[in-house]
Each structure stands twice: as C-alpha cells, then as structure tokens.
Amino acid sequence: MTKQQLFEQISQKNSYLCVGLDTDIKKIPTHLLKEKDPIFEFNRQIIDATIDYTVAYKPNIAFYEALGAKGWESLQKTIEYIPKNCFTIADAKRGDIGNTSGLYARTFFDKSSSGLDFDSVTVAPYMGRDSVDPFLEFDDKWVILLALTSNAGSEDFQQLSIGDKFLFEQVILTSQKWADSERMMYVVGATKADKLLKIRELAPDNFLLVPGVGAQGGSLEEVSRYGMNKHCGLLVNSSRAIIYASSGEDFAQKAKIEAQKVQQEMSKYLAEYL
Ligand SMILES: O=c1ccn([C@@H]2O[C@H](COP(=O)(O)O)[C@@H](O)[C@H]2O)c(=O)[nH]1
What we know:
Its EC number is 4.1.1.23. The structure is a single chain. The mean pLDDT is 98. This protein has 12 helices and 10 strands. It is globular and about 55 Å long. The protein is of the alpha/beta class. It has helices spanning 3-13, 38-50, 61-65, 69-81, 98-109, 111-114, 129-136, 167-175, 196-202, 220-227, 240-243, 251-273; strands spanning 17-21, 56-59, 87-94, 120-123, 142-148, 161-162, 165-166, 184-188, 208-211, 234-238. It has one domain (3-273): Aldolase class I (TIM Barrel), CATH 3.20.20. It is 43% helix and 17% strand. Ligand LLZGTKA7 is lined by residues 20, 22, 60, 91, 149-150, 187, 189, 211-212, 214-216, 237-241.
C-alpha cells in the first residue's frame, strides 16, 4: 500500500486507528476454545467487528510464534482474511546482519516463501543500515523503525544524550537517508507525546506508528495535537483495550463499541488538526 492509498483510507474512514491483534490463547473467551482454530476465529470476529473504524491491523508476532506451527497457521489465515485496503503491520521488531535480515524480510513480505504478505514490519535500528536495507529491497513494502518506544526502558538507551541529541533523535536523523517517507515509518510511544514536536521537526513527512493508548494510558488527544501532519501521518495502535473489552460471548460487539469510540475521537482531531 502506498502512502497516498493509506491517506485515502484514513480520509474515507475518518480514522487512523490500528487494532493490535495481540491474541493470547489464555485470554480469549473460553467458548472459542472448542473451535478448530480459536486464535483465527477470535481474530476473524474482531476484524469483522472493527473493520469500519480501522485502517490498519497489527498482529504482534510473539503471540503467534509462542504457539509454534499452529500459531503460524493462525497468523497466515488472519493476514489472508484482512481486506487488502487495510494496512498490515508485522510487529516483529527484527533486524540482524544483512544476510539474515534478508530472510526476515522474506518471512513477512514474500508470500511465495512464507505464506505471509504484510505491508510492513517493525525493525530495530540497533544494528544499523545494512540490517535494515534488506527489508527495503521489497517494492511497496514498509519498514517501521523503532525510534522512541512506549516502555519505561526507553530511558536506558533511546533517551541517552549523545552530543546535543538523544539517541532516538539520531536514529531518526540517520535513517532519513536510508529511505523516504514512502517507505519508512517510525514507532513512537503514545506515552512519549511530549517528544512529538521535536520528532516532527526531524521527520515531518513520515507516518508514525504510535502504540500506548488504551491499556498503557497514553493520551490520544496529545498524540494527535503534537504528532499529526498534513497527511495525518499517524497510525495509533490499541490492542488490549479493544480486543479484550469483554471476555464473554459479546467480545466482538464490545470490541466494536471500543473501536468506534476511538474512531469518533479521531474524527474530531482530524477535523481540528489536519
Ligand atoms: O513502543 C512500543 C512498541 C510496540 N508496542 C506493542 O504495541 C502493542 C500495544 O498493546 P496495548 O495492549 O495497546 O498496550 C503491543 O503489541 C506491544 O508489544 C508497544 O506497546 N510499545
């Protein structure tokens, strides 16, 4: 999906919501456990319920890998099921020497190899350019580079001062030379909304994937106020607050209500800040 197509979806749905499919076999409603593939059945119903309010879906790969071959199969079926006009994110946080990164890229981007055909993958910047380049060799696919993450541990390295900058600022500055805003996004935690103005100086045109609203308590209002650019430039993820809004048989209905609430708030900010 191109940047323009993503913006068109945002404009059509009046939403920049990304629903996180952090589907945990231990948390899904027990009535689903009798299904042949409970994880896929849960995802299918969540997707059906939230599709009108959502422009992106982000399965966190850990939740699928933890289940071995069965989890991988559920992931493949889920990606196949998501309509092609929705942006898909493999939240895998990969990156290795170039030779190995090439295999990670094939895993998430090359359907003929792995059965998966994501639009994007999250990548850790720590190993530098040659660890990221192999992901960029796939046309029309996106790298979402970890810049400033939502967790407390982002202080350990990302917020260290190096010269007159923080390390996460240098990550953005340097990586701006690796790909343009048609292929590169950045992860910025919603819990770090106070840093968004500075981040927008360094990356004015890039989309930002912003996890950390909902269960982690980040403010959608602040993220939208300080992070939005002229193409919206935001995909705000919420996982647990939406997909586990209820643990009963009404889980999909409750997820729909939560997604709609977020979308309605987003439509207000799109009118105000875009
Ligand atoms: O900085 C980061 C990067 C990734 N995540 C991931 O996003 C979701 C958030 O889930 P919630 O339930 O909405 O808190 C999850 O998959 C994380 O691994 C993040 O939270 N922060």
